[in-house]
Amino acid sequence: MVTQITKGIKISVLTSFEGTYFKNYKIHFAFSYEIKIENHSKDSVQLNTRHWEIYDALNNKEIVDGEGVVGKKPVLKPGEIHTYTSGCLLSSPIGAMKGFYSMVNFTTTKSFRVIIPTFKFSAPFALN
């Protein structure tokens, strides 16, 4: 598990290999990740958008920007936690993701970025 704290918001990530799939006549490696967002600040915050950089061992890079996370824009009061699970398909058995969430602080009404630390994917058979 990797963790990062930005402005009192703690991000923890746990990854898992889900298997291989054929899509468009090409093998893909499926991974899931669980993200826990903890509000250790004294203010209520809301997650509005996400930005991802997804890498695989073949040097491919994909950028994904979007609203919220898995269809939600969670509001976290001080001490609250929001957890969600998502996934991605890679063209190789090893890869990584990193990014940030854009959040708003309800007390100051200012937007800020929360860093999502780089987390790695690896299929068990890919490591020796």
UniProtKB/TrEMBL annotation:
SUPFAM superfamilies: ApaG-like (SSF110069). Residues 3-128 form the ApaG domain. It comes from the Bacteria. InterPro entries: ApaG_domain (IPR007474), ApaG_sf (IPR036767). PROSITE patterns: APAG. It holds the Pfam family DUF525. This is Co2+/Mg2+ efflux protein ApaG.
